[in-house]
Design a protein that fits this description.
- The complex is a heterodimer of chains A (206) and B (141).
- Chain A contains ten helices and no strands.
- The longest helix of chain A is centred in the middle third of the chain and has 24 residues, at 93-116.
- Chain A has helices spanning 2-11, 21-37, 41-63, 66-83, 93-116, 124-128, 140-151, 155-166, 171-178, 182-205.
- Chain B has 141 residues and is mainly alpha-helical.
- Chain B is 72% helix and 0% strand.
- Chain B is built from seven helices and no strands.
- In chain B, helix 4 (61-75) crosses helix 5 (77-101).
- Chain B is elongated, with a radius of gyration of 30 Å.
- The chains are: A mainly alpha (206), B mainly alpha (141).
């Protein structure tokens, strides 16, 4: 009998019904994506609320101005809504969304570059405006210096830094967003960190 | 730069720049409402019905089987115990009789096959536990 019980215990499939918080959140997101695919705008609204800060953050660092970033981020979500029926789940939803936003930001940069004749750097005004969440934090000065330093990085490094740290994307996912080899992504990250370290140190010393 | 400085830089980089306008989501949804959209493709395989995790666990065949056996033991424990002892005895004498007629190396072969089956079951179970753990979910990303 013990043998039978052990055999059953060993053969019993462990849940793909695991009650971890992460799997419940993933299940919830899958359900919302499926609903949005079928045209449920309320489900899509929840997804917009969930990802708006991250997508806007990427757009702001790519575009350098709040107005352009709002336009890029809004366009990205609208394009995502239109393309959602074709989303096959081969990547995470966030990766797919970032890819749309990144492509949109590149299109904007090309258009802006034609008008300005140079690559877009972050406008300090975009950072110094109080954010919608209110009071400045104690390390606000350091953050401002960091954002200025990020704004001076080449575009690809800016994107990699944002996606890796604030976007919670893996190297492979960033490669998918940028449509670049993983080795290139690692190089961008390494150079970006080195440049930021140098600029922050220079900022401390001055 | 020290390791502490590196850690501080990493922590600072985790933060996002200031967020979008308060009306951002409303503006997006206003545009979504009028945006043309192709018809939805058939649902992909990963888009399972959103049943709660405990429902899915209960519907597993092995779970149902375990409950059935537990119920049988609860209701007919004495009879089942007597019956399983008789069956075990019959099987044991049958095996003993058969073993007496088999070559000496057959016992080792049976032990190897039985052990392999047990190891395979343990490996499958271990893999499932890992893949469903938080570490496993991260590894699958």
């Amino acid at each position: 009998m013990t043998t039978i019980a052990w055999t059953f215990a060993l053969a019993a499939p462990v849940s793909d019904a695991s009650p971890t918080t992460e799997s419940r959140a993933a299940d919830d997101e899958r359900a919302r994506i499926q609903a949005a695919r079928s045209g449920d705008e309320r489900a899509f609204r929840v997804l917009v609320d969930r990802y708006r800060d991250r997508i806007f953050g990427l757009a702001l660092r790519m575009a350098g101005s709040r107005e352009a970033a709002e336009e890029i981020a809004q366009d990205a979500f609208v394009r995502a809504w239109q393309a959602l029926p074709g989303f096959r789940g081969e990547s995470r939803f966030s990766t797919w969304l970032y890819r749309i936003a990144f492509r949109r930001a590149l299109d904007e940069r090309v258009a802006l570059g034609r008008r300005r004749g140079r690559e877009t750097a972050m406008e300090p005004a975009a950072l110094e405006q109080a954010d919608t969440r209110g009071a400045r934090t104690p390390d606000w000065g350091t953050r401002l210096r960091l954002e200025r330093a990020i704004g001076e990085l080449p575009e690809a490094q800016r994107a990699c830094i944002t996606l890796f740290y604030a976007g919670d994307q893996s190297i492979e996912e960033i490669a998918r967003v940028l449509d670049a080899p993983t080795g290139t992504v690692k190089t961008h990250l390494h150079r970006a960190r080195a440049a930021l370290r140098e600029r922050l140190e220079a900022g401390h010393d001055s | 730069m020290t390791r502490d400085d590196d850690a501080r830089l990493d922590a600072l980089l985790q933060g996002l720049p200031p967020g979008p306008s308060v009306s951002f989501t409303d503006d997006v949804m206003r545009r979504v409402r009028v945006a043309p959209r192709p018809a939805a493709a058939p649902a992909p395989a990963w888009a399972e019905p959103a049943l709660p995790w405990w429902t899915r666990a209960l519907l597993q065949p092995a779970t149902i089987g375990a409950f059935v056996i537990a119920a049988l033991f609860a209701v007919w424990s004495d009879e089942l115990l007597r019956g399983s002892l008789q069956l075990s005895g019959a099987l044991a004498s049958g095996i003993t009789a058969a073993a007496a007629e088999m070559p000496s190396w057959s016992g080792l072969l049976l032990a190897i096959n039985g052990g392999s089956l047990l190891l395979a079951l343990l490996a499958v179970q271990g893999a499932r536990i890992f893949l469903n753990s938080p570490v496993g979910h991260r590894a699958q990303r």
